What does this fold into?
Amino acid sequence: MLNLEYTYSSLRLATYLKSFAQHYRKHNYYYPPSYVLWDCTRRCNLACRHCGASKESYADELSESEVKALVDQIAKMGCRFFAATGGEPLLREDMVRIMAYASEQGMGTGIATNGYLLDEKKAAELKQSGIKSIQISLDGTEEIHNFIRRNEQSYQNAIAAIRHCHNVGIYMVTTATVISKYNYDNIPILADRLAEVGVKHWKVMFAMPIGRAETDDCAISKTQMKQMLDFIKVNRKRFHIIVGENLPWLGKADSKIRQECTFCPVGITTCCIGVNGNIRGCPEMPDTDEFLEGNIRDQNLWEIWQKGFRKYRSAELRQTDTKCKSCSAWSKCRGGCWVMRLNGTHCIKDYI
Ligand SMILES: C[S@@+](CC[C@H](N)C(=O)[O-])C[C@H]1O[C@@H](n2cnc3c(N)ncnc32)[C@H](O)[C@@H]1O
Ligand code: SF4
Ligand code: SF4
It folds into this structure.
């Protein structure tokens, strides 16, 4: 059966991409990003086995006043959404104030958290800040989640955090699960547990080869990947399942697995502000020269946005990757995720 929502979303996306390039040719500046991610700290109260954020650590973090000045810039650019990830965002004692400030500037706000510190009081403060979206990690049922997160309290606290966010009426509460060799078998049971807890939005991501996930080779096998995609297809009736962008096109079944089509938004609708002000496409991209677009302490974000991100906008992969060059699915996949490319797990044709 034709998935109308998916069909409309692919038309919308194609139109946007065309208009993004045309607008630049005509007016010599790019549309602003619609959402900006702030990689706010790499400090963390957990040490998860699959953690990609462990690839870097920083002694120097942007201060509250630097972030607020940045929020001013982002809002002025016309960006609509500002979200914090990490590390663990709730370890920053200024997080609620910064989210409140971004809301006051007219942007939607969100955080991704492990939920460990998200008690009733924190949920109420976040709600009060005007926050729209909270993503809480849950990688399995109790034993599996605690094994992955290496903490015996982490499951209980994450479940409690989901409940607190529901109770205070946060607009969008999403549960996020990273599928890896550690929890693959547990996902169907986890789905039942999530339904009991009242989860409506479930983000599932495939482990990316960075940080501890690189050292530990967390990826699932090709057969497991096929089974996982079938599982998502069936369970879409139970939850709003959002499949992570690190496999932007899932082959012919994409419209049966995803509600809306997706793409790698780097340099087109999003960018990331790193812990020390370095700008790159997304937090998962290593903080190396290959992905660095500038630093917020040297230049303003508008300038970096306009001059940087060339390889994403010029569809460089179409010129440099011989397989992508002749691929009939290019317009849907656009060469896949740059981070998955780091170990060659980016192409869906290698899985299905
Ligand atoms: C980096 S964490 C930061 C927020 C918070 N500390 C947490 O764990 O939710 C954001 C999300 O990325 C996921 N993540 C971490 N390492 C990953 C990897 N190697 N591949 C894919 N997702 C990963 C986490 O499980 C979490 O859902
Ligand atoms: S996944 Fe999140 S909670 Fe786990 S170690 Fe990484 S940043 Fe910390
Ligand atoms: S060959 Fe390139 S464009 Fe085609 S599916 Fe693979 S990664 Fe995507």
Remarks:
- Residues 44, 50-53, 85-86, 88, 112-114, 137, 176, 178, 205, 207-208, 210-211, 213 surround S-adenosylmethionine (ligand 1) (CB under 6 Å).
- The first strand starts at residue 35 and ends at 39.
- The chain has a mean pLDDT of 96.
- Residues 146 and 153 are 7 Å apart (CA to CA).
